[in-house]
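tokens incoming
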């Protein structure tokens, strides 16, 4: 019997688990995939938004402002890549300049600090590669960029070190309540818990309706992206937005924390599991982005990907305890600024659980900091010390990103082990470079196989079923 079952291991579920790990509570994350953060969390713009965009008075506005500050603190504490580079919302006409003023006033109402309207001269001085058709911009210096999957993993791994369990490859198929206990039916048996936190992302409405009346509906909405090579990474210094419209914040151009450039997304209705990319969607992203930064060289694209937003009709987060089923808490509709808000939402979920009857007694000792050895960023002196201590750090496996065998081995044996090639990529960046694992992928697969003592054919690219090896092409000769 668990005190709390968290359904979903995206950024929201991981943040809740992290906070629960601070208390004497028996908690579990239940996730249908084979790793943490493989849904919307790994496929978004990676922006910690400033808070000027959400409508005042909404949950989005409240938690975006709080999350902007708290996420930065957690990234420093848990050694997660984060940079506060600021954002510019660019206007291309006098009419759009009015939108900048509206956004600024909205930001002031929401509590966003230090915003300014830049004229064309200052804008092009700070961002010389912007289009000369830009006439002004709203500057929001509190905006940051982050590695979203590394943040989710850091939160979940810290939670595990503090006693929270994680059940991967465990899909919820039904929920029943008997007396004060929820019985969660899964492909791996029944899980019993006194409280449920529904953080199932694009499937949150389906999970809610397993036990409760329908109170919200998720309308999945897909966004497609380009990830550019590091040769394009210094093209802009800030997150570059165009003026938002009815479809959202629009196509952005931004550096990533790993030195690349990200461009996107578009906005189109989709199925909840549709992460395909299309010529139409990518053409729209490319053409729209060139309006902002005409010098982007799209021949330097190293990967395209898509993520699915969990939109609701009222465009706000749905965070509440079900009125008929005490102890069932929904955290749904986590579209943008969901990544920016999740870490701030989690402490309030604990307050809701406590108000619903959960006893929260703080632990005397917890793990609340971590450090990751990133060979690429060490001084020559510290590299030498690390190699002397562990020779595996002297073997470069991923040449594009300078990732060593020692880092890959560590990724495989982290508190939530990496069991696929992409799981290693999410933990230490192996395969994230220009060749996208074309050279290091087979070697990473071999290391995982060796370290986990599993057959090579059982190591997938990412999710279960993404097999790379299906059999031998030759059996050594004719029979």
């Amino acid at each position: 019997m668990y005190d709390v079952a968290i359904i979903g291991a995206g950024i929201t579920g991981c943040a809740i688990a992290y906070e629960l790990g601070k208390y004497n509570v028996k908690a579990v994350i239940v996730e249908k995939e084979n790793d943490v953060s493989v849904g919307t969390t790994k496929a978004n713009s990676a922006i910690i938004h400033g808070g000027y965009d959400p409508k005042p008075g909404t949950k989005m506005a409240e938690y975006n402002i709080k999350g902007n500050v708290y996420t930065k603190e957690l990234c420093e504490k848990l050694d997660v890549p984060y940079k506060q580079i600021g954002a510019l919302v660019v206007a291309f006409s006098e009419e759009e300049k009015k939108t900048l003023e509206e956004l600024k006033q909205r930001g002031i109402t929401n509590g966003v600090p230090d915003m300014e309207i830049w004229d064309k001269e200052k804008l092009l001085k700070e961002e010389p590669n912007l289009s000369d058709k830009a006439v002004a911009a709203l500057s929001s210096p509190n905006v940051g960029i982050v590695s979203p999957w590394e943040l989710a993993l850091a939160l979940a791994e810290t939670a595990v070190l503090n006693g929270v369990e994680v059940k991967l490859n465990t899909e919820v198929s039904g929920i029943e309540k008997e007396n004060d206990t929820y019985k969660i039916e899964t492909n791996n048996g029944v899980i019993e818990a006194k409280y449920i936190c529904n953080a199932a992302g694009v499937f949150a409405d389906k999970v809610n309706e397993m036990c409760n009346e329908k109170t919200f509906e998720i309308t999945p909405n897909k966004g497609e992206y380009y990830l550019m090579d590091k040769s394009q990474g210094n093209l802009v210094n800030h997150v570059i937005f165009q003026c938002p419209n009815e479809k959202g914040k629009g196509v952005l151009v931004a550096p990533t924390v790993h030195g690349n450039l990200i461009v996107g997304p578009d906005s189109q209705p989709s199925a909840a599991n549709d992460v395909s990319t299309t010529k139409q969607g990518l053409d729209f992203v490319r053409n729209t982005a060139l309006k902002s930064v005409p010098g982007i060289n799209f021949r330097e694209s190293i990967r395209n990907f898509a993520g699915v937003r969990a939109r609701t009709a009222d465009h706000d987060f749905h965070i509440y305890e079900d009125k008929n089923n005490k102890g069932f808490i929904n955290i749904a509709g986590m579209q943008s600024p969901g990544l920016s808000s999740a870490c701030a939402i989690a402490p309030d979920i604990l307050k809701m659980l406590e108000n619903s009857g959960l006893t929260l007694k703080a632990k005397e000792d917890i793990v609340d900091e971590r450090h990751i050895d990133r060979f690429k960023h060490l001084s020559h002196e510290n590299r030498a010390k690390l190699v002397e201590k562990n020779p595996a750090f002297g073997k470069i496996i991923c040449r594009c990103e300078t990732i060593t065998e020692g880092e890959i081995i560590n990724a495989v044996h982290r508190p939530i082990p990496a069991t696929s090639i992409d799981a290693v990529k999410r933990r230490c960046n192996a395969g994230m470079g220009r060749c996208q694992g074309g050279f290091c992928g087979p070697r990473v697969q071999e290391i995982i196989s060796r370290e986990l003592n599993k057959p090579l054919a059982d190591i997938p690219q990412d999710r279960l079923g993404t097999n790379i090896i299906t059999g031998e092409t030759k059996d050594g000769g004719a029979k």
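note: The chain is about 30% helix and 20% strand.
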